[in-house]
Amino acid sequence: MQFGVYGLKPEEKVFFDAWAQNNGVTMNYHTAGLNGQSPADFAGDDAIVALQTVPYPPAAIEAMAAAGVKYMALRNVGMDNVPFPTLAAKGIQLANVPAYSPQSIAEFAVSLTLQLVRNFGYVIQAISAHQYTEAMQRTGKELGTMTIGVIGTGRIGASAVKLFKGFGSKVIAYDPYPNPALKDEVEYVDDLADLWPRVDVIDLHIPGTKENTHLIGAAEIAQMKDGVYIVNTARGNLIDTQALLAGLASDKVAGAGIDTFEFESDVFPQWEKNEEPTNALYEQLLADPRVIMTPHIAYHTETAVENMVEVSLGNAKAFVETGHAPNEVDVQKLAQA
């Protein structure tokens, strides 16, 4: 049995090697993601195990099918970059990792919030310029005095709720499917219009579906409190970047923590080469000390990486041995969505 591993990161390899040895599976490693491969590149592979945040090109999926590969196992949960119509047309089955470490992303979201409300961007900027008195005069806020709006209360959102509650924050939440485990922890609202004007911080934990694109735009920001903070560790398309910049320019938005950027596919190739991103909107955000930008790393802990590798490999092995996987998704249904 052989798996083609794409988008391999250095920190993953120790977990891949250990699993391969324990399970007698050969790994065909590729540091590059799926993009521009030919059928020959997949020769001998029984399944593809992939991880990337940029879109999976339909041509790569077609090349997999031409090589006889029937199974694909993602090492993450998000599938908004997957061309489901192509998978369905080529009869390729897919599995993901529904939960590799909700705590890792929730902790990162809370850490971004703490840095924002304590003016870390300004403090670091002042210290770097040896303006220590300016840094000492920056007055922050305490989370225990603030109301947090958590949008999406699945595994990650629920973890974030518990962390914010630990700081003494009041939490108002929105989710089309409220989490029963949180009924005594949060106040749910039925409409986001009831959340925007009541919260000091907005923390996003929902999928980047087409319906959720620009969930936060100019109209939504106008409804928010003056001096609101916005944190996005979910998907870049949830926020209209132009509207966010306008909100920052008017001081309607006091700060933003952006781990997932709307035009990530534009800047990701430059991130991989350690080059300065040339996207003008990214550069504007990066230059603002009220904004903390990170390169899609909220998930990135040792626990998460190990779980992503082991669960995805378990899915791939089950596919090859039985034709189905524990975390298989309905490709045909998703292709019609």
From TrEMBL:
UniProt cross-references to SUPFAM superfamilies, sorted A to Z: Formate/glycerate dehydrogenase catalytic domain-like (SSF52283), NAD(P)-binding Rossmann-fold domains (SSF51735)
Domain of life: Bacteria
Pfam families, alphabetized: 2-Hacid_dh (PF00389), 2-Hacid_dh_C (PF02826)
GO molecular function term, any single one: NAD binding
Keywords: NAD, Oxidoreductase
Family: Belongs to the D-isomer specific 2-hydroxyacid dehydrogenase family.
Protein's name according to its UniProt entry: Lactate dehydrogenase
Species name: Schleiferilactobacillus perolens DSM 12744
